[in-house]
C-alpha cells in the first residue's frame, strides 16, 4: 500500500490521500498542505490524551474487579459499593444546574419530533435509501407489512390484491381522522378533496362540504388550485401529503380519487461509520468516506440490476408546493444527515506514525468527515443538508465526562483547522456506557455549547453492564434484563436529565432501535411508548418502519409531554434513581434454573453470536437481519454481539455453564446457522471445518477471551479476524 508522508512523520495510505486531494478538496476553501499539516498537528496533540483515557478505563475496571472479589466486601452492600465508585472517580460529583447553549440547530433536531434511521454508511444503496426516507408512502408501508392482517382474503400478494388495497385505504383514512379531523364526518366518507377560498375542503358521500377542525393545518398544494394533484397539511410539525389521481376522476379505485397518503417520515438519519459496518483497513475507510462525500456533495448514486433492467438510485430532489395564497415554497426531499464517527478505542492503518503505529480511528473520522461536510457548508453541493450551517457528529461509546470533554476539545481543534466558527460541529452523545449513564449530567455539561443529541442504547449499555460487573456474579437471563431496576432508571434518567439541562427546543432526546424489522404490527403496538416517554426521536430499522413509526408522533405531542415533564421535574424534592441505575442485574434464581433452561439460554446466545460473526468476518457485513434460534429475523450489530458474548463469558466464569458445554453448543449451533444461510451464495459454512474456520475462531475468542476484551468490546477480535480473511 503506497503511503504519503506528511508533517511529524505521519504516513497516509495512498487511497485516503488521493481521495482527499483529488475528490474532497476541489471546490472547498482548504488546501492540501494546510489540511494534512492540521491532521498531523491534531493527531500529535490528541493521541496521547486518547491513550490516557483508555488507560483510565482499564484502571477503573481493574479496581472494580478487585473490589468484587475482595472477601472484605462480602456480603455485598449497595451503599459501600456506591461509596467505592465515588472514591475511585468512577462516579463524579454533580455540580450546579445549567442549561445547554447550543445554537444553529436545524428544526429536524430541535423542534420537530419524529423517527430516526441508522444506516451503514459503507453500503451506498442503504445510505441512499435512508437519506431518501424523509418521505414515505403510507399505502406501501401498510400493504407490504403485517400491520394489515390477512383476514377476509386481504393477503399481500405479488399481484395487486384489491381486497387488501381497500383495507389499506380504510386504515389510512382512519389515520387522517386522527391527525386531520374534520368539522363533521370522516375521511372514510370523502368523495372529493379540493380547495375553495384558499381552504382545504372535503366533500362527503352525503354531499356535505366540510373543513379541517384546525384550518391552519392546510399549508400547501401541487397542481392547480382548481385541480390540485396533492394537498399538503401539517400536524405536530410533520407534513402529510394527500395525493390525488387526476386520471381517476370518477373514483374507480378510490371514492375520492386519492392515489396515496405520503407521510414525512425519517426527519433525520445517522449515517454510521461505527457499529453497523465492517471497515477494518484503509481501503474500507476510504470507501466509507467516499460515500459520505457523495452524500454531502449530493451526487452519490448506486446502480442496481433487477432482471434485465438497471436502476440507478440517487438522492431525492426537493419537493415544491404552493401555499394556500399561491406563494411557492420548498421542503427538503431528504433526511437531515448525521454522521456517527468511531469511538475512542479503535485504531486505523489509514494513517500511521513514523514508527508504523496505527493512529486513533475516531480522530481521523472527525477530521475527514468534517472536511467532507464543508461541501454542504460552503454551498458546493447539489442539495443543502443543514440549513443552519451545522455539522452533526454522533460520538459513541464514550465513558464519562472526561471522554466527552476530549471529544469537545477535538471538535474545537478541527473547527480551528478548517476555519469554522466554534461549535459549528454539533455533538451527539450516545448514552450507552455505564459510566456515562451514571454521570450523564456532567457529560452533557462537558458538551453544553455544542450538544444536539443524547440517545439511549439498550444493547451496548447491557453489554457494558455485564462487563463492568463481570466479577460480581452471574447475570440474569438476557430476556429478563429489561425488567431489572437499572434499565428503567437508565431510560427515565436520560429523558429527565436531558430536559433539566434544557434540551427541549435545542436538541434530540432519543430512544433505541426496534430490532425486529419484519414485525411492524408489534412495533406499532409498543413503540408509541417512546414519544410518550418524552423522547423526540427513536430509531427504526428501515424506511418502511419510519413511515409507520411516524404515526406515533401524530398521536403524541412530544413537545407538550416534555413541557409537562419539565414542570414535574422542577418541583421540590430531588429524584434519586442513581441507586437503581447501579443495581447490578445478578441472577436471582440460579439454583432454580433447570438444565434445560440453562442450555436454552446458552444456545440462544451462541446461535445469535455465530449468525452475526459468520457474516461480519467472512462477508464484511456489519449489520443485517439475522435469524434467531426461532428463525425470527432480528437486526444484529456489534452491540447485540457484545451482549451475547459477554453473557456467555459471565456464566462460564461463574460456573453456571462449563467450557465443554460452550464448545458443544458452538459446534451444534454452527450447523443450525449454516442451514439458515444455505440460500446465500456468498455465505461460507462454518461447520465443515471448525479448525480452520476464521469466523468460528472469532466466536471462540469473543467468549473465551471476553473477560480481557476492553470494556467487553467485540471490535478488536472482529477486526483481527476480518483482516485475516481479507488476506486470504
Any overview of this molecule?
Helix content is 42%, strand content 18%. By secondary structure, the protein is α/β, with parallel strands linked by helices. It has 3 domains: 82-88 and 99-133 and 267-316 and 333-581, Alpha-Beta Barrel (TIM Barrel); 137-264, Malate synthase G - maily-beta sub-domain; 590-727, Up-down Bundle (Malate Synthase G, Chain: A, Domain 4). The chain has an 8-stranded parallel beta barrel with strand order 3-12-17-20-21-22-23-24, surrounded by 6 helices. It has a 5-stranded antiparallel β-sheet with strand order 4-11-10-9-8. Strands 1-2-18-19 form a 4-stranded antiparallel β-sheet. Helix 9 (361-377) crosses helix 10, helix 20 (595-619) crosses helix 22 (659-676) and helix 20 packs across helix 24 (715-727). The longest helix is centred in the first third of the chain and has 38 residues, at 32-69. The protein is globular and about 80 Å long.
